[in-house]
């Protein structure tokens, strides 16, 4: 165990100055769980986009747009349906669905029992002794109590009295773990002088520091006049590892704070060179610094950041979006005007009236994606774990001799969308409505679906087979590869229906560019069923016509952004946009 030995314990500030070392150098990293909340960031996928695609005008698109939302005149609550069901890929949709489905609610764990009351002011040795006697937990008291202090952001003075008490009980020794947690509190409360003292102790005792301690020291130094020492710590880290995006963020923020723009941009390029995705607050700092600066080179670098967001399918947060707006409007002589808005279903911006890029892939993009999915998901995936080569060949031959389909259904998935209804009746209602629109439908199912039972009536399944082409695989088979194969084989006009969001199959794709294209294709081709009434009345949700990605026309920018209070899953996209245009 790593220890610090202190010879003076009467006055705790002296502990930082009098500390003969009794232990070995740091051989392990302290438990860093307590850092997660302080340094937490949003997970972001690294996705790449290709060129803008032109919209498609096909049979399935036009017919579904005109007829799929079949409603009787005078139906009550028709507007309520659309408001209650956010778009399948809209930010917050997954949370909304879980709230509407009581069975999917998480059962919250009971709160941790508050074993003892944390002190709000420094304690003396006798008071700490009494507090430890009252402690009934299984954990080590000293580590438990300082972890609770971190959780509740206790004052540095209280933590300092704890370490002084520990030193009195251990012949002047304080463990490295306790010291680093104390450092965390010093950094959190921006107690710079205390950070300096801990830093001096660590420099005196170790030739190098482990990453957790270095990370805290970097964060603690950047706001001080000793901020360049944070850069030295970063260089030391590079000798043994690639620094984290948090380390780069802190050093970039420190450089900008102290007006050293060149160092900030060099660190940013270095970060990108490691294929790391920068924190949004790092990018925001560059825009905040650039306000009112008349420097074409700096401005071009900020525009490059926006293109980086586009190419990697990244979205700024609400605060960052405000910084972008402020910067554009501050550029002298440019006359930019920004507003926060939404996009209509047609793809037209409500702010400026411009049309947002189409969600549909170009022919070149489509053929590229089709080849990749065929090779990496259909042929090279793990589908043989749940099917056989013979069955896949049988299906491929089936599709080969059928005309192209307009709609491909995951039959079992669709049939179970409404648990209180009979599966065969739900499937028949969906197929019947699509068939009435003269759409060529393929139903993918399992063999047990054509075995008569209470849930799968023979007469209803016979009606399904009369109105649609059907392929029933073995009961152990995986439906999704068949669904992808049939949809892609039928052409770019073909849509598919399933509740499955196909995340596992996207993960099988080899690179970020292909994953980005897959998600774009999925958004433009996956139909969602949002309501059903007995007697074949099905309500389909419109497919988005536009691509949710940062985009520009030269005299305008449209930037989708995450709202602060709205939880968005990785497969969802924002619904709010920053619209920027130049005044003429």
TrEMBL record:
<keyword id="KW-0378">Hydrolase</keyword>
<dbReference type="GO" id="GO:0004526">
    <property type="term" value="F:ribonuclease P activity"/>
</dbReference>
<dbReference type="InterPro" id="IPR033495">
    <property type="entry name" value="MRPP3_PIN_dom"/>
</dbReference>
<keyword id="KW-0460">Magnesium</keyword>
<keyword id="KW-0496">Mitochondrion</keyword>
<dbReference type="GO" id="GO:0046872">
    <property type="term" value="F:metal ion binding"/>
</dbReference>
<keyword id="KW-0819">tRNA processing</keyword>
<protein>
    <recommendedName>
        <fullName>Mitochondrial ribonuclease P catalytic subunit</fullName>
        <ecNumber>3.1.26.5</ecNumber>
    </recommendedName>
</protein>
<dbReference type="InterPro" id="IPR031595">
    <property type="entry name" value="PRORP_C"/>
</dbReference>
<dbReference type="Pfam" id="PF16953">
    <property type="entry name" value="PRORP"/>
</dbReference>
<keyword id="KW-0464">Manganese</keyword>
<keyword id="KW-0540">Nuclease</keyword>
<dbReference type="GO" id="GO:0030678">
    <property type="term" value="C:mitochondrial ribonuclease P complex"/>
</dbReference>
<keyword id="KW-0862">Zinc</keyword>
<dbReference type="GO" id="GO:0005759">
    <property type="term" value="C:mitochondrial matrix"/>
</dbReference>
<dbReference type="InterPro" id="IPR011990">
    <property type="entry name" value="TPR-like_helical_dom_sf"/>
</dbReference>
<dbReference type="GO" id="GO:0097745">
    <property type="term" value="P:mitochondrial tRNA 5'-end processing"/>
</dbReference>
<feature type="domain" description="PRORP">
    <location>
        <begin position="343"/>
        <end position="579"/>
    </location>
</feature>
<comment type="similarity">
    <text>Belongs to the PPR family. P subfamily.</text>
</comment>
<keyword id="KW-0809">Transit peptide</keyword>
<comment type="subunit">
    <text>Catalytic component of mitochondrial ribonuclease P, a complex composed of TRMT10C/MRPP1, HSD17B10/MRPP2 and PRORP/MRPP3.</text>
</comment>
<dbReference type="GO" id="GO:0001682">
    <property type="term" value="P:tRNA 5'-leader removal"/>
</dbReference>
<keyword id="KW-0479">Metal-binding</keyword>
């Amino acid at each position: 165990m790593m220890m610090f030995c202190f010879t003076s314990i009467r006055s705790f500030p002296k502990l930082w100055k009098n500390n003969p070392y009794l232990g070995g150098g740091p051989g392990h990293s302290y438990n860093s769980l307590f850092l997660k909340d302080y340094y937490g960031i949003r997970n972001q996928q690294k996705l790449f986009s290709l060129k803008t695609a032109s919209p498609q005008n096909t049979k399935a698109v036009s017919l579904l747009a005109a007829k799929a939302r079949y409603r009787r005149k005078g139906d009550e609550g028709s507007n309520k349906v659309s408001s209650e069901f956010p778009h399948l890929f809209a930010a917050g949709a997954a949370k909304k669905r879980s709230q509407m489905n009581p069975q999917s609610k998480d059962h919250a764990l009971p709160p941790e029992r508050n074993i003892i009351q944390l002190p709000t002011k420094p304690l003396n040795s006798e008071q700490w002794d009494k507090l430890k006697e009252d402690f009934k937990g299984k954990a080590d008291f000293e580590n438990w109590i300082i972890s609770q202090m971190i959780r509740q952001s206790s004052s540095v003075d209280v933590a300092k009295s704890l370490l002084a008490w520990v030193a009195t009980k251990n012949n002047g020794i304080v463990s490295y773990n306790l010291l680093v947690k104390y450092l965390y509190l010093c950094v959190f409360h921006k107690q710079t002088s205390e950070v300096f003292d801990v830093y001096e102790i660590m420099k005196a005792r170790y030739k190098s520091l482990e990453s957790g301690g270095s990370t805290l020291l970097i964060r603690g130094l950047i706001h001080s006049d000793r901020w360049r020492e944070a850069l030295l710590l970063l260089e030391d880290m590079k000798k043994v590892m690639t620094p984290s995006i948090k380390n780069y963020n802190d050093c970039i923020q420190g450089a900008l704070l102290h007006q050293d723009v060149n160092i900030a941009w060099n660190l940013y390029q270095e970060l990108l060179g490691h294929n790391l995705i920068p924190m949004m607050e790092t990018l925001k700092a560059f825009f905040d610094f650039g306000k009112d600066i008349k420097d074409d080179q700096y401005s071009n670098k900020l525009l490059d950041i926006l293109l980086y967001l586009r190419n990697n399918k990244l979205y700024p947060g609400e605060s960052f979006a405000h910084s972008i707006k402020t910067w554009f409007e501050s550029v002298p002589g440019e006359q930019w005007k920004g507003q926060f808005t939404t996009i209509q279903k047609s793809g037209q911006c409500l702010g400026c009236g411009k049309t947002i890029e189409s969600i549909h892939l170009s022919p070149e993009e489509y053929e590229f994606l089709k080849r990749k999915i065929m090779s990496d998901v259909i042929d090279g995936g793990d589908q043989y774990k749940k099917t056989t080569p013979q069955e896949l060949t049988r299906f491929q031959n089936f599709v080969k001799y059928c005309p192209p389909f307009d709609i491909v259904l995951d039959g079992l998935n669709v049939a179970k969308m409404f648990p209180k209804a009979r599966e065969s009746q739900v499937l028949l209602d969906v197929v019947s409505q699509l068939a009435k629109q003269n759409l060529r439908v393929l139903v993918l199912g399992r063999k047990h679906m054509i075995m008569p039972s209470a849930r799968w009536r023979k007469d209803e399944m016979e009606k399904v087979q009369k109105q649609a082409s059907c392929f029933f695989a073995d009961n152990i088979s995986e439906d999704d590869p068949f669904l992808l194969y049939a949809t892609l084989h039928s052409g770019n006009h073909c849509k598919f229906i399933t509740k499955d969001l196909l995340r596992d199959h996207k993960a099988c794709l080899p690179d970020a560019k292909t994953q980005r294209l897959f998600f774009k294709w999925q958004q433009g081709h996956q139909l969602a069923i949002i309501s059903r009434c007995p007697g074949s009345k099905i309500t389909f949700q419109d497919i988005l016509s536009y691509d949710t990605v940062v985009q520009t026309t030269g005299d305008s920018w449209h930037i989708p952004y995450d709202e602060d209070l709205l939880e968005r899953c990785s497969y969802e996209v924002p619904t709010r946009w920053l619209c920027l245009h130049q005044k003429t």
